Amino acid sequence: TYLHVAQCGNSEIPSVIQLETHYMSANIGEEVTLLCFYGDEMAMHFSWYKQALGKNPKLISTIYKYDENASFYHEFKGNTRFSVQGRNGMNHLSILNVEISDSAIYYCGRAHSNVVEFGHGIMLNNKTDILILISDSESNRISPGDSVTLNCTINTETCEGEHSVYWFRHDSGESPPGIIYTNGDRSGQCMKSPESWSPTQSCVYNLPKRNLSLSDTGTYYCAVASCGEILFGNGTKLDIQVLRILVLLSIGRTGVLFCFLTILLVIILINKYFN
Q1: Which CATH number covers residue 58?
Q2: Residue 249: burial class (beta carbons within 10 Å; 0-12, 13-18, 19+)
Q3: pLDDT tens-place string over residues 157-187
Q4: Rounded CA separation 122/22 (Å)
């Protein structure tokens, strides 16, 4: 059993807040340190927020730029599993004896002139021995204006009840995945195994995408919150084929330019001939 940490968030956030790593892993019960560096001379206060999937962000800690000790809030107050290392351009959050309930997205923030800005979030995701298999639909090559339905099939043997399903999209750039849709607590189309002795349950979730454009290009991930944990599929890649269109446009523009230059050259030669 171990935890997986992945960087996620919005690439538009100012780079004054930087996370050192994109991925980390730690066994349940071990220590995880989420590293956050800042290069802003103006900001005076720094914070950490925790956001579980489907929940509102919750303030963990705040620390003044020149202080060594942070203030903690909510259930983190007095909880010795959580600590912050501040000063010298750092705002590192350490979590001791990692638990399943620590699975969430963690945001490092800075405050200046009553404005709070955040760096990329860090997704802390646990993987346990619970058998949940997630199968995403196959990758697709499609054209602009087409429609497609992404499928997420979940097979579980050790946990009954409804699943909360989330869809993430990771574009071809450097920005980390962002949540785009959630099925909430609906169980989708679920069917139990026909064998009476088998506890296996299969559920299928669909994400329809219509009138696709270039901005829809990317890898779509299905994530399942079940049995107190969050698991991810391998992803489905949508490749919007616009290269052929761009090539045709480029050829067309080249042809028009060639014709224009040819006509211009003929006009020049005619003028020289008559003059």
Answers
A1: 2.60.40.10
A2: exposed
A3: 555 556 678 887 877 655 555 666 666 544 4
A4: 8
